[in-house]
Fold these 2 entries.
Entry 1:
Amino acid sequence: MLSSAKSTRAPAARTEISTRVLVGGVAHLYQGDLDLGRVALERLGDLGAGVLVEDLSYGAVAVAQRLEELAPERLVLVSAVERGRPPGTVERRTPDADARTPEQVQRSVADAVTGYLHVDLVLDVAQGLGVLPADTVVVEVEPATVEPSEALSGVAERALDEAVALVRAEIA
Amino acid sequence: MCFKNLPIEFDEAGHARLKGGIPDPYSVTVSRPELQLNEEEREEQIKRLMARNGHIREVNMDPVTRVAGALAVNVVADLENGRYLNAHSQATLFRGYEVIAMGRDPRDAVFITSRACGVCGGVHSHASVYAIEMAMGLAPPPMGTVVRNLGEAAEMGYDNPLHLYLLAGPDYSEVVVKAVNPELWPKAERWRCPKQEHHGFATMAELMRELNPLTGKLYQEGLEFTRLAREKFALLHGKYPHPQTIVPGGVTSTITLETLNEYHAKLGRIFDYAQRMIGVWDDIASFFYEADERYEQVGAAPMNFIDNGYWDDPHAYDATYENCNEWGERRWSTPGVVLDGKLVTTRLADINIGLEEFVEHSYYERWSGDRYDAAPDGAPLSPFHPWNKRTLPKPTEKSWKDRYTWATSPRWDRNVMEAGAYARLVITALAQKEPQRETGFVEATGRSIKMRIPHGFRPETEVEWHIPETWNAFERNRGRAYHYLFAQLVALENLLEAYRLMKTGETKVAAVDHRELEKAIPKEERRGAGFWGAGRGYLTHWLTLDQGKIVNYQIVTPSTINASPRDPWHQPGAYEQAVMNTPIIEDTSDPRKFTSIDMLRTIRSFDPCMPCTTHVSTPHGVVVREVNTCACGAD
């Protein structure tokens, strides 16, 4: 069972015991550049033994429960996130090491269970529930367009190459 | 005779007809409910009180929900006399699934409208499919209905603990109680829990500590059991939320004995947990009532309930409107309307024709041109009925006297109604129509429901939920806890039926192969209604098809009913009424520290779900706290 930050992790599921690194995409399907996390996973393909590539575009509580199952040593997330940077900006971030207050985490849990989807919610909830690997990296791209579309914008397409290279470098 | 305000009467055979001799019978000035206080009188009363003393404050709480933040409540509070003099409930988001569905292939509606809510991940798919298959004339085979029942029971297993422990539970936790009701804490430390044997906590203080967000055992356990429920749903439908296996005429899932066994194994873990949940919410209500009897008035409201019933009898449901009264009354929870605690009908056709939707205080235009004057069975239909309504958004400046919300005002027989999972228990208990299933896990007595729990780690036992004398915030939460068990017992009964069908070889799950569905779409004009339910109660989708496309689509969710604004007669909606009935119990000696916790407990006891109240969105998504919505809010 998930617990607070001090809890002990449950053992990993037997079939996935070899997951050393989890590469996860957090995306909004067909929502313009916000779909980049999913497209990046397609581009990355199979990254070899010990590296699991998985779409984590679902509720952050369920993602935290997945992290609890897999217990990876390293987590690399890739996602398009609007933060007001120039469109196409690619940024490598490490999550804030400071523990969130229970109120902050509770707010994120409430958003997460009602369908909100965002890489920050994944980080908040996973850290709050004590399952975020200490070695976690986020590769972010600033989207140029967030209107419904099956294709990424040209700006995001170019940023995608850089983001994918960054992810590969992280697991090299 | 169930209608007192609408101009409808019944002939000797029970067929509804319009009363004769009434010019413009559905006019809001002709068919009116009786009013206790009109809006002008209420406003005058507040003005007089405000002129006399300075203890009256206007407070805006936004957001008040722990979900999505799309509900704001404006209250006028008289701190000296501990009363809320006025309340307005405001849905602050415009979304738009009804508009998006227009002109599309009906099969698209299943997937589009599913996104109306991020919490209720399967109920809209089901309601949509029920509406479509009624229009198409496709009845699922028994196993198809059983699989739907199992999935929806699992969904209630997700929704109820989610609300009780993650969303409403924190209001009763140690951290909140110490902050907003410090006078209760010493009492909680002394108070011995009568249901300790069920939940394991000796005192109320211990129990409240375990409700603390993140660190409390009850909170954590709630998280774990929502996961179990999602797994049960995903076993049957591949994914949760927004399944892609619910189709007109059945489901497309492959159901094997192994599927059922896995579902069984997960279900078996729930019964001990359900007993603990009941013990927790029984004790919370008892403690607060004992601590201060005014808590019985927190969230108090008349017992006016509406529900479509839930979980079909696989051998009775035939997807027709003509037979909906018969198959409706065979549902595991009985459809019905309760007014002032009295059951007035259990017929789905009455529930349907009695429902009207008004937009006088909402950001919508009144539509013109009413498509139908009768339901498919010939019963009269109001111009305000959803089969006649069209969604015409018209944003304008907020005005409490005029328009102030994106929610609408659904009314039944022009009465203010309440929806909730607990309404299923009230109606089923009163109606006693719950078909006595062979297994007898559930028994309606006319004033209660007895539920027999199979043994888990705990021995087999029986619990009984009683219709309370006063309806309030605590009873909503308690009712929801019992509903959790009720839903899981429905799951067990359906599981046994699934095994039986498997044994007899009746394993077909859909009337038509999904690849052939296109051929079954009618070209002529057809109507359908998906009389269904959600974790928060009543849910209906209505649609009209013509030339194989959707020409009208309407959704009324439970939160639309509960969050409704005033109606044409100035009757406040269910949230608004409940807030105005709520005493201010918290210490207001320092007005700067006023938290309005009593109002917040009231509103949250309804389990408000605002994303699906105002089923619309901008094409750019909705930004809340700098997070983007998932697809449920973005299309």
Entry 2:
Amino acid sequence: MKKINIIFWISTALLCLVMGGSGVAGTMASPDSVKMMHDQMGYPIYFLYFISIAKILGAIAILVPGFPKLKEWAYAGFAFDLVGATWSTFATGATVVQNLPMLIFFALLAVSYIYHHKRLAAKQGA
Amino acid sequence: MKPKTIKITYWILLILLCMFMTFDAIGGITKQQAGIDVMKHLGYPIYLMPMFGVLKLLGVFALLQPWYRGIKEWVFAGLAFTFIGAFVSHICSHDAVFDTIMPLIFLAYLFITRWFWTKYEAVKNVA
């Protein structure tokens, strides 16, 4: 159980740092966020605020104790966000090499999700 | 509610949802003009249409397959986020009231379907 907890918390802390951090930058409409979402990928500015608030809420849902159904939705939302981001970067001319960091985000999400369920199962068994 | 009522209602709601999603997905993948007009009006890039189309088809498959229960929750989540996103987008684009609340009606339909799904899972093995 200790090993499960350690892996869960490291992956989850990093995941929430990445998603929550980009969410905070987005709600402040940082020049980098606007350049990427609006200028390069062609999304409306209001969507930057929408997705940023959604990311912050998702990070909170995953970090607070309890609410397993809500957490499931937050993980799903993060997965769809990453799929959408990957699709958008490819559609607007990014190369596979430029998109390699996405693999790290997907890996963080997968590890955090798998170990979240391992923790749930361990708690139910205990 | 009788198990039979739950089962029948669940399947009717689910099949209607899947038909709507398939219809919408094909429209997106083939980039129908009506879809392009909506995307342009709301300010979204057109390249997203095939992505939503493919995701919706995967969603239909996930909803109809009987083996993995957990993945269905992700489809409900994804559709709910899409409808909430559509609602917010129509507000931000100052659209007519009817266009704006339409996604909320879809969202209500989705939650009713999900509610019947949880009931269905509890009674599906009852004859």
